Amino acid sequence: LYCHGGGYAFHSGVSRRFADMLAHHSGAPLFAPDYRLTPDHPHPAQAEDALAAWRHVTKTSAPQDTVVIGDSAGGHMMLMLLLALKARGDPQPALGLGLCPWTDIGEGGASLHGNDRYDLVQGWMALRFGQWLDPGGRYGREALSPINHDFTGLAPLYLQIGGRDILYDMTRDFAEKQTSAGAEVMLDVWPTMHHDFQSLDSMHAASTEALERIKSAIRSS
Question: How many CA atoms lie within 13 A of 132 on its CB side?
């Protein structure tokens, strides 16, 4: 189950290529839901659509045989889905894979603006996406930021991030916090890479390596 990125605000051709690329490299059947987008459809629309997609996939694939993967906002969707499954008492997937995941919808670390000079996605954009997700703060940053929740006992997590990604600090902090709490989390960092660098595929050695690690993680889950 692949949850695409785009700040929950758009579904671009890049995301469609990302889905094709992940299916190709993993060799596994992939389902990519065309979920509702902000600002027309704020939270909980995306959470509802993620759960509906999970139910669709697990009609034919047992939860323990299913991997949920998401990049950027799709990484946020993946993490929130695991929490929703926990709240419902439903089985977890075999693995949660977060590629440059959005783990804090607010001011999540110095890199959010400090890495603007390196990244196509800018810090102010992430904050605007957060406002569109939760207009007026109806649900609140704490509730909608995975970094504020406990993932202990949930599906193991494999995360990837670039050191020049605006989301680097929040991803690192999320991994450290969850590991300290006892959750099963593995984080790989490519220091010179930007947001969603995996999409470069074979055009960059770091992307090729990242995709190989994704494939290995899926096969061993």
Answer: 19
Nearest Cα neighbor of 21 from 46, 4, 34 is 4
Closest CA to 177 of 140, 158, 149: 149
- Longest pairwise C-alpha distance within the chain: 45
Rounded mean pLDDT of the chain? 96
Could you tell me which of 81, 79, 102, 100 has the C-alpha nearest to residue 9? Answer: 102
Structure tokens given for 38 = 């902000």
Reported pTM: 0.97
Give the contacts of 217 (CB within 8 A, at least 6 positions apart): 95, 97, 158, 186
DSSP letter for each residue of 46-82: HHHHHHHHHHHHTTTS-GGG-EEEEETHHHHHHHHHH
Which distant-in-sequence residues (6+ apart) come within 8 Å of 185 by Cβ? Answer: 151, 156, 157, 158, 159, 175, 178, 179
Q: Which residue has the tokens 């929703």?
A: 84
* Angstrom distances, CA of residue 78 to CA of 73, 97, 140, 162: 9, 8, 19, 19
For residue range 27-72, what is the model confidence (pLDDT) as tens digits? 899 999 999 999 999 999 999 999 999 999 999 999 999 999 999 9
